[in-house]
Amino acid sequence: MSYLARPIMAVFGLVPALVGIYYIGYTKGQQQAENTHNALQLSELRAIIAQSKNLTQQAQKASSEIEKVIAQAKEANYKTTVEFEHDLEATKNARASCVFDDVIMQQLKAARSRAAAAAIATDTSSLDGVLRPTSNDNPQHRR
């Protein structure tokens, strides 16, 4: 073997080893980058899941509140119906004789309209049990 043959063979032996080491390092770098990317995506998904759980809890709480408001409205409607029935029963003889004048009848009509509007109202916070006069109501009663 010549004097240059050994160093040339060493260089040709070293090049594949360096290429192999480079490939292993490159592959590990790609794996680490992929793992980092996957970890970020997993973190984002966990955050989305946590937000979804929070929104679900808020929706359940809101639904519970709506059920309470509906129950209160039903109770108020029942009480109002009982009061109307009682008042109508007490005045049935007077109504049969048509003793009420036009102003009273207009006020009753306006009250019926307000009650109907309140029954279909979606915002029950404005239903405080007070019947307010409308523009059709005359505050003076004729007798």
List keywords for this structure.
3 helices, disordered C terminus, 143 residues, mainly alpha
Architecture overview:
It is a single chain. This protein is mainly α and 143 residues long. Mean pLDDT is 81; it is low at 136-143. It is rod-shaped and about 140 Å long. It has helices at 5-90, 92-96, 102-120. It has a domain at 1-65. The longest helix has 86 residues, at 5-90.
Q: Compute the number of helices.
A: 3
Structural class: mainly alpha
Spell the H/E element sequence: HHH
Distance between the termini: 139 Å
Helical amount: over 70%
Describe this structure in a few short sentences.
With 143 residues, the chain is an all-alpha fold.
Helix-strand blueprint:
Layout: H1 5-90, H2 92-96, H3 102-120
